[in-house]
Each structure stands twice: as structure tokens, then as C-alpha cells.
Design brief:
The protein is an alpha/beta fold. The protein contains 10 helices and 18 strands. The strands form 4 sheets. It has a 7-stranded mixed β-sheet, with no helix packed on it. Strands 5-7-9-11-13-15-16 form a 7-stranded mixed β-sheet, covered by helices on one side. Strand 3 and strand 4 form a beta hairpin. The two termini are 37 Å apart. Belongs to the CAP family. GO terms for molecular function: actin binding; adenylate cyclase binding. It comes from Nicotiana tabacum (Common tobacco).
Length: 475
């Protein structure tokens, strides 16, 4: 659709709203009653409707071609955006509440996020689709931003950060279905576009400093009409600087939270692993808990801090040692590990972890991943090097620059590189099944997949051996 066509479409939409206004009369609050619907004339609400029509419609269209659980999770995404629209309308008519009032106010949004999270439990079919969609919804938590001291990133940054954990799983969809089913690729691309550029540009245009509450409106004494019961979990914590999910992890540092960060810390639906992990008893294991819902209330926080598995090699750790080295050890089955308070002078050492995902929100000096299995690491970038050694089945996603990446004595390593890291060098030794994913030339282009050679031919020529990689047909 050309820019002219889009402009005409928006003008036609505006005319339709004005006709509705003329036919029904203007009501207080800037809205017009049209039966069960409310046509809101505020430019930010009109723009949000355009966002849903242009971007969310593409996700739904692709999901309808796929059907099943992918369509089910997409309908929840639609519901979450519908709830956000309702909240944006109510904010314009409501005085800014205190922290507890804001938690109550945002419960309908959390209700949708919780529902999406529950669909991911037990690694069902199309898990990557479900996880990508569920994790992406944390980007909608930008609406909870109340100021620089609230503990959340600025709204635009929050949306970008909120998408990044979802992108970890979204990339897997693009790789898995690249040459198998175009509908799945279409869905994954459309889901990303919904947030980047969709929601990000919307927030940038209308709410770069957060929602504007009414100075003269009514108090937020009750939740919106579709709010869950008071016993329902409150909104999840905001995502880490790049990853966030309905199981949104909190910052891993031990400094006390204040403002909204403290509120979300109490009611978040996911808990980061900290150095205070304790042994899990049988009655705490997920498979033995009848009340297991995937959402942790304040009273369940302590139990959730423990992994559902017990490491045989030593205690689980996620801690900063001597102010210079982050140590992440023996984490098993933890998908929301976060290091957020880091700097370019610190290093990160990941050892003995299995079936877990770690996000490093800031740029660090170097990262070492040692003796890990089925481990995912997402990093903002490294100053020196990222090293993978003695591992089996790991994925590393670099969102910034990485001058050097080395893979040693490893079987199965998937590297996702950003454009900033394409100029670096990759060194491999005694390793196999090493694949490197690189972004396409344009935003709509597919990722390119490159298998690094693991076999070499050595030919004696002119007094020395000449070594060349062995290529395989179909590779």
C-alpha cells in the first residue's frame, strides 16, 4: 500500500468518525456513543485504532491461515491490545492513582498476559510461537510508566526492550519454517512489525513521556469493566532491558526497589534467579503442585525462586563477585535469568547451566559460556570477546557489536549476529554443527543461515600443506 493510499484510508476513517459524531451528538469526555461501541475522537486513540488495523490485522490474517494454538494465542494478543485501548481511554478521564491503585487499574492487562503465559506451560506444540507472542505482551507495560523514578524504562525504550525476549523465540520460527511454510514466516514477521515499528512509533508519537492522567477526572476507585477478580495476579514486572515476557524477570541486582519497581517486584508473574536459591522439596516441584498456574503471587515468590530441578553439581548462582565478574552457575530450567546492572568493565561467566535463558542487558567486557547444555544467551554486546567452550546445543544472540566470537569443543551452536557484529571474527576449534544467522539486507528480508565448515581437506603442495574447508552439496 502506497503512502497516498494510506493517507486516503486515514482520511476516510476520520470522515467516518466525524459523521458518527454529527449523527449522534457529542458526549462529555470526548466520545460519541454508538450503540455498544464508543468512538473516541482523541487523536491518540484514533492512532491506536489505526495501529491495530494496520499491524495487528496482519498477525491475525497469518494466524487464521495456520489455525490451532497459533490462532488462539493471536486472539489473546488482540485482546491485550483491546484492553490497552480501553485503559488509554480511561486514563484520560481518571486522576493519577497511587501505586496500589495503579496495580488495580492495570489488572485487565495482566489478565490477558497471564492467559497467554499459561498457554506456554509444558512446552506444547508450536511452543516458539506461543512463547514469542506471550513474551511480546510485556511491551504493553509501557503504560505503567509514571516518571523517571518509577523503576521502568522510558516508554519507547520499554517497548523495544519488551520485544527482544520475544525475538529470541521469533527468530527460531523464522529459521524452522523458512523453507517449509510461508504462513508461519508471515506470522512471525507480522508479530515483530506489530511492536517494531508499530507500537514503538505509536508511543514515540503520542506518549514518549508516558500516559497523561486527567488533572480533574475521577479517582481510579475501580478496575475497568473486564478486570479480573481482586484475587487475580497483578501486572507482571516490566521486561529486562531487552527481554520481557509475561513471566517478566526482575532486575538481578540486589539493590532495593523503589516506586513502581517495588510494586511490580511484589506482584510480578516471574521471578529472577538470585544467589539465595534454596533446595527444592518434592511438594514444591511443578509436577506435584495442583495449584501451579505459571503466575507467582507475592506469597509464592520464595518457592518460585528455586529451580524445578536440583543441580547435582553445586548450588545455583547468579551473583556479582568482587564487583567485576558476574557468575551464573548451575541454573536448570530457568528461562528468565537477567543481568541488568552491568558495565563494560565487567565479565560474565556462565557455567554448568541447562535448559535456561540468560539475558545480559548491558554491554560487558567479555562473556564465557562453559559446560552448558541447551542454553540460550542474549547479550547487548561485548567489548572483547564471547567464548563458547565445552557446550552442547547453545544459542547466542548478539544485539550489538562483538569483535571476536570463539567456539571450542562444542557440539551444536547457533549464533545470531546483529549488523554491528558482522565485522567481527569467528574462531572455531574441535566443534561441529555451528550455524550462524545473519540479518537480511532490508528489514523485510529473511535471515541468512550459514553453516561453518567442520571438515577440512589437507593437500601437500609446494613443500607445505594447503588446507581448505570441505563443502557439502545441499549445505
Amino acid at each position: 500500500m502506497s503512502m497516498e493510499e494510506k493517507l486516503i484510508q486515514r482520511l476516510e476513517s476520520a470522515v467516518t468518525r466525524l459523521e458518527a459524531l454529527s449523527a449522534t451528538g457529542f458526549h462529555s469526555g470526548g466520545s460519541v456513543g454508538t450503540g455498544d461501541d464508543t468512538v473516541v475522537l482523541d487523536p491518540s486513540i484514533i492512532a491506536f485504532d489505526d495501529l491495530r488495523s494496520e499491524f495487528l490485522g496482519k498477525v491475525t490474517s497469518a494466524a487464521e491461515k495456520i489455525g490451532g494454538k497459533v490462532l488462539d494465542i493471536t486472539k489473546i494478543v488482540e485482546k491485550a491490545f483491546s484492553v490497552q485501548r480501553e485503559l488509554l481511554i480511561k486514563i484520560k478521564e481518571t486522576k493519577k492513582p497511587d501505586n496500589s491503585g495503579l496495580v488495580e487499574f492495570l489488572k485487565p492487562l495482566n489478565d490477558a498476559i497471564v492467559k497467554a503465559t499459561r498457554m506456554t506451560e509444558g512446552r506444547p506444540d508450536f511452543f516458539n510461537h506461543l512463547k514469542s507472542a506471550a513474551d511480546s505482551l510485556s511491551a504493553l507495560a509501557w503504560i505503567a510508566y509514571t516518571g523517571k523514578d518509577c523503576g521502568l524504562s522510558m516508554p519507547i525504550a520499554h517497548v523495544e526492550e519488551g520485544w527482544q525476549m520475544a525475538e529470541f523465540y521469533n527468530n527460531k520460527i523464522l529459521v524452522e519454517f523458512k523453507n517449509k511454510d510461508a504462513n508461519h514466516v508471515e506470522w512471525a514477521k507480522a508479530l515483530k512489525e506489530l511492536y517494531l515499528p508499530g507500537l514503538r512509533d505509536y508511543v514515540k508519537s503520542h506518549y514518549p513521556l508516558g500516559p497523561v492522567w486527567s488533572a480533574t477526572g475521577k479517582a481510579a476507585v475501580s478496575a475497568p469493566s473486564n478486570a479480573p477478580s481482586p484475587s487475580a495476579p497483578a501486572p507482571p514486572a516490566p521486561p529486562p532491558a531487552s527481554l520481557f515476557s509475561s513471566e517478566s524477570p526482575q532486575a538481578s541486582s540486589s539493590r532495593p526497589k523503589q516506586g513502581m519497581a517495588a510494586v511490580f517486584d511484589e506482584i510480578n508473574s516471574g521471578k529472577p534467579v538470585t544467589s539465595g536459591l534454596r533446595k527444592v522439596t518434592d511438594d514444591m516441584k511443578a509436577k506435584n503442585r495442583a495449584d501451579r498456574t505459571g503466575v507467582v503471587n507475592a506469597g509464592e515468590k520464595e518457592a518460585h525462586m528455586s529451580s524445578p530441578y536440583i543441580s547435582k553439581t553445586g548450588p545455583a548462582k547468579l551473583e556479582l563477585q568482587m564487583g567485576r565478574k558476574w557468575v551464573v552457575e548451575n541454573q536448570v530450567g530457568e528461562k528468565n535469568l537477567v543481568i541488568d546492572d552491568c558495565d563494560a568493565k565487567q565479565s560474565v561467566y556462565v557455567y554448568g547451566c541447562k535448559g535456561s535463558v540468560l539475558q545480559i542487558k548491558g554491554k560487558v567486557n567479555n562473556i564465557t559460556i562453559d559446560k552448558c547444555t541447551k542454553m540460550g544467551v542474549v547479550c547487548a554486546g561485548v567489548v572483547a570477546a564471547c567464548e563458547v567452550v565445552n557446550c552442547n546445543g547453545v544459542e547466542v544472540q548478539c544485539q550489538g557489536s562483538a569483535p571476536t566470537i570463539s567456539v571450542d569443543n562444542t557440539t551444536g551452536c547457533q549464533l545470531y549476529l546483529s549488523k554491528d557484529s558482522l565485522g567481527g571474527s569467528i574462531t572455531t576449534a574441535k566443534s561441529s554443527e555451528i550455524n550462524v544467522m545473519v540479518p537480511g539486507a532490508g528489514p523485510d528480508d529473511d535471515w541468512g543461515e550459514h553453516a561453518l565448515p567442520q571438515q577440512y581437506a589437507h593437500v601437500y603442495k609446494d613443500g607445505h600443506f594447503v588446507t581448505t574447508p570441505v563443502s557439502h552439496s545441499g549445505a
